[in-house]
Specification:
Elements (H helix, E strand, L loop, with lengths): L5 H11 L3 H13 L1 H16 L4 H5 L7 H39 L3 H22 L7 H13 L1 H15 L6 H30 L1 H21 L13 H7 L3 H12 L6 H33 L4 H29 L4 H20 L4 H10 L4 H13 L6 H30 L6 H9 L1 H10 L7 H20 L2 H8 L1
Helix pairs in contact: 2-9, 2-10, 3-5, 5-7, 5-8, 5-12, 5-18, 6-7, 6-8, 6-10, 8-18, 9-10, 9-14, 9-17, 12-18, 13-17, 13-18, 13-20, 15-16, 15-17, 15-19, 15-20, 18-19
């Protein structure tokens, strides 16, 4: 069998892309301003909220301004925590409504709604940034638009539900890995461009990049991505809209995960939800204190931090795209084993970060954590096989809800621990994060002893067993003698 030319294979792969470029554009817009936004809160806290002089705030990282830096960073971190809460908590409620609704009516409309909300929000933030004397509390007000439209939570959950709709059980883990690759690649590209633009033009140009990227993502979703749900003609648009706000939508997500299932499938679902929550909590929590940590220990600025994280994010993306398909397709490695690799990678990163006093230890830590994405891929791949297709949106909605609690809880808990321990042990947050991941590693270790049987295969196996038992009963001598009588 002749192998297809490389160019032809690339063209065929591009034709298969659906939501991958969309998610890349969204995550690019998010990551391009992530570190800049934290630094912006520190700067506005210094100049506006704490009313320090411009001379101090312009040289906040100098040794003589150490006390002012601690106060400004703490205040800015607290503002960032509130910002995350406002943009996340309302989105959690929206996710529980929109997830079950999307199972019945549409995958595209929730994505369009959430992307439009994020675009408007980031546009307003760019306008606020254009006014140097504007209070940082205006950013908190604009964040409510993202929260009420569903924000990143709806975007992530609906994207993975869409991918589950268009894939089968055999190819799903590889397609999830490709989707994760696009997500991971957005981190270095966004961080690098954001850092370089910040070096050239400071805050405002970086804040303009995000709404432009989100707008392109909305256009891609609107005009290129095909709806997977058939159009309903048996119900009016008004009734479809009303159905969005029914409490049954919220209940159905929990009922789907709580309903009795054969074997230990229900237990696996809840344990996977816990793992997904744990991984995201530590990942995003550590990301929230990464810049303040390196700013204090090594005196890094936004550009240096963005450039360095770009390099390791590229390594992360390459390792994920290479190893996950190799594990799943060529080596046929158990999904739980892939997940355990991800958990151990993240734990190693946290342990090394907790003892970092030199830059080379920090580089070892980031390299050790390059396979952390395997944990999230294994969770999504496994959980998609434990339910039928009609339940995917509800389960991924609840998974997104659990994972979306993580930015709030992870950011708040790790920044508060960092604020409290910055004077005597800045790495305490990372040490506690490593301990928190131990249950997730134990769960994946237990799941490695279980068969990789999907919900459909389990039902077929149970049906085959029942048929065998029925044949044994019907062919027994007692049954035959009764029939003769």
């Amino acid at each position: 069998m002749t192998q297809k030319p490389l160019l032809e294979r690339i063209v065929q792969t591009v034709k298969k892309t659906t939501v991958e470029p969309f998610l890349f554009l969204v995550m690019f817009g998010l990551n391009s301003r992530l570190i800049t936004l934290q630094s912006l809160f520190h700067d506005r806290a210094c100049r506006i909220s704490l009313n320090f002089s411009h001379e101090i705030c312009d040289h906040l990282d100098d040794e003589e301004n150490y006390i002012e830096q601690i106060h400004a960073v703490k205040y800015g971190n607290n503002l960032y925590n509130v910002f995350i809460m406002i943009s996340t908590v309302p989105a959690l409620v929206m996710a529980t409504f929109l997830g079950p609704w999307s199972d019945r009516y549409s995958r595209k409309y929730p994505l369009l709604l959430a992307t439009a909300g994020v675009t408007i929000d980031t546009t307003l933030q760019a306008v606020i940034t254009a006014f140097p004397n504007a209070s940082p509390y205006w950013y908190l007000l604009s964040a409510s638009i993202s929260g009420l439209s569903g924000g990143i939570i709806i975007i992530m959950s609906s994207t993975y539900s869409y991918m589950s709709d268009i894939t089968d059980e055999r190819s799903r883990q590889s397609r999830f890995a490709i989707l994760e690759f696009f997500t991971i690649m957005a981190t270095p590209v966004g961080s690098f461009i954001g850092g370089q633009v910040f070096r050239a033009g400071k805050y405002l140009p970086v804040m303009i990049i995000s709404p432009c990227s989100f707008a392109f993502a909305w256009l891609w979703m609107r005009f290129y991505v095909v709806e997977t749900k058939p159009r309903r003609f048996d119900i009016t648009k008004r009734e479809i809209f009303r159905d969005l706000f029914k409490l049954d939508n919220m209940k159905s997500s929990f009922k789907t995960c709580a309903q009795i299932r054969p074997g230990n499938l229900r237990l696996q679902i809840w344990l996977l939800l816990f793992i997904g929550f744990s991984v995201r909590l530590i990942q995003l929590g550590s990301l929230a204190i990464g810049f303040p940590f390196t700013r204090k220990i090594f005196k890094w600025d936004v550009s240096r931090y963005s450039y360095t994280t770009t390099v390791f994010s590229l390594i992360n993306a390459g390792m994920t795209l290479t190893l996950v398909p190799t594990f799943s397709r060529k080596l046929m490695v158990h999904e739980a084993a892939v997940g355990l690799v991800g958990i151990m990678s993240l734990m190693a990163k946290m342990v090394l970060m907790s003892v970092t006093v030199y830059e080379y230890i920090l580089f070892y830590a980031w390299f050790a954590g390059t396979l952390y994405a395997c944990g999230g891929i294994a969770v999504r791949s496994r959980i998609s096989k434990l339910v039928n297709r009609k339940e995917l949106g509800r389960v991924f909605s609840l998974l997104a809800t659990c994972e979306s609690l993580s930015p709030v809880l992870g950011t708040i808990s790790m920044t508060q621990i960092y604020n409290a321990s910055v004077h005597f042990y800045p790495g305490l947050s990372f040490a506690m994060a490593a301990i928190f991941l131990i249950p997730a590693a134990c769960i994946f270790g237990w799941m490695m002893s279980l068969p990789t049987m999907s919900f459909t295969q389990y039902e077929e196996s149970e049906a085959a067993k029942n048929m065998k038992e029925l044949k044994k009963v019907s062919s027994s001598p007692n049954v035959k003698s009764n029939e003769l009588k």
